[in-house]
Amino acid sequence: MYGKQKLQELVKLADVMVQGSISETYRTCGSTGCRCHRGEEHGPHFYLTFRTPKGASTSLYVPESELVKFRRAVEAWNRFRELARELGEENRRRLAASRPRRGGSSADAG
Questions:
Q1: Whole-prediction pTM value?
Q2: To bridge 26 with a disulfide, which of 41, 51, 87, 98 should be the other Cys (CB 3.0-4.6 Å)?
Q3: Residues paired with 51 in a beta bridge
């Protein structure tokens, strides 16, 4: 079967992937005498930013101790999307090649 390795990789990625991206922020607090008001902001603070099922952008705080795990999860999501695109392209080519030729443009198959 074509794409079997890609399908197996998709299954592995599905166990760890997380849709979103990691953002890094720095903040200024409300204490007027704090160093952050002299340019030394607090941070970095890390967040997983993603869209809810209703399309709203939201964030989840990521402790620095969990950062590597969250970055790997986002990388797994990106790889999942890449593999899905590749499989979709392979399926399109396969479907196009299997249909009867009627003198149409070769651009249909590519």
A1: 0.76
A2: 41
A3: 57
